Fold this protein.
Amino acid sequence: MVRLRHRGPDWSGLYHSGHSFLAHQRLAIVDPASGDQPLYNEDRQIVVTVNGEIYNHEKLREQLNSHKFHTGSDCEIVAHLYEDYGEEFVNMLDGMFSFVLLDTRDQSFIAARDAFGITPLYIGWGHDGSVWFASEMKALHDDCERFELFPPGHIYSSKQGGLRRWYSPPWYSESLIPSTPYDPLVLRQAFEKAVIKRLMTDVPFGVLLSGGLDSSLVAAVATRHLADTNAARQWGDKLHSFCVGLQGSPDLKAGKEVAEYLGTVHHEFHFTVQDGIDAIEDVIYHVETYDVTTIRASTPMFLMSRKIKSLGVKMVLSGEGSDEIFGGYLYFHKAPNKQELHQETCRKIKALHMYDCLRANKSTSAWGVEARVPFLDKEFVNVAMDIDPQWKMVKPDIGRIEKWVLRRAFDDEQNPYLPKHILYRQKEQFSDGVGYSWIDGLKSHAAEHVTDTMLGNAKYIFPHNTPTTKEAYYYRMIFERFYPQNAARLTVPGGPSVACSTAKAVEWDAAWADNLDPSGRAALGVHASAYQECNAGADKVPGNGFATIFGHMQIKDVTVGAREVVIKG
């Protein structure tokens, strides 16, 4: 539990029954006074620890009017739903969650993770036959012979002896291309509902505001609807916004402009390249990855989260997920047709738990802050992924840039959500938007610590996901020092990428094979400040691609075992 205390510094809970143990570190957001975990049903035979938020818990309580609830916690609903519906209740939950539930009547247990993997979860196995679950692998690697990522949208049942998928939307198969006509009003209303339900909180909160399209829309919708919420009655109707960047960075300028337009209480945090470099080891320890894009973007978010927590804020809204759903990364400009665009968005959404969700959750949770992501609302994703992907295609000749369907949905001439130039600002990846010299500084620092000989022998030192740049090699060395087990390195995916693409999408443009870097500036001919072609690949092993994939929220920590159920959360 000590290793996960940063995720939930407000309360520690422990439960023991037979050979099962449940442990929980709580970050109190809803009902801080009485919602300590583990939570129980009426006779305390069903025990549960949950990380996350169940946004429809009040509606579900109305369906369970014969039950008596002991707390105001949104998570208590899990124990009562299991009592009435058994293992088939998970799809009834609307929220972000990872949980482990123990039925003491027969010592059986289940574990489940939300549809997109917004909250992290790992599963491990011990030599003695025990099964473990935890929010972060640092809680497992000493006790488990093997561990791996718990897949999003799945449930583990000790009775059935394995994992099964509970979330299977039409888009998941990738082969079925949707044909629903684009309706901007339907899309707008679905997103507004997604933001409003995430204003459920009993503690101070705010919004991460980089000034890009996604975070600006989250802030704009939250500002419009905040006054009507219980949160506003407790904490006031002025939304607080937060932005981080190097001095003079694109995000700082745009974030300030949007904040002034919306009238938020804006907090601007500056960092230097050296501040970021000094934090790299802590970032890799907390985020548990060696993926280049994730580390680049996690570092400023990690630094910002510390400042946010110092202000007494415990929850923030963030804009992750939009680029995956709408084809917002700049490489989507080269999508050859609507079928391939749709299939790439499906692949991107499925992988979010290894990248943006992992980064947003663990960077904030390192300081006891919870990040909520409205774009990854189940209902909203269903609406957005049901749109005929022809509408998502980039068509400069008729004025359609990346994410045009989202921009158009909020382009309201009568009651504008945002200034036009913000609404139509070019996509800027977070690691670029905080200041272009950030990535350049990281590469220079890595070059000082990794020699040409070291990189040339990388395939012998790191045969799995071999790093092909000095920056990637530098991160890998740090990761292996914290997490030397083979199981740990297997939790991080790899493969070639350009501008956060999947390996499959690299095939869209032959020129990309020589310019494999996950930065948006690698999208030559698309990004307004693209890398010069003569510099492309300067930090690579000749002939090799960049070993990473694409761009990339808080479990209160879970660990469970069939015989030893440990939940840290």
Notes: The CA atoms of residues 8 and 25 lie 4 Å apart. The radius of gyration is 23 Å.
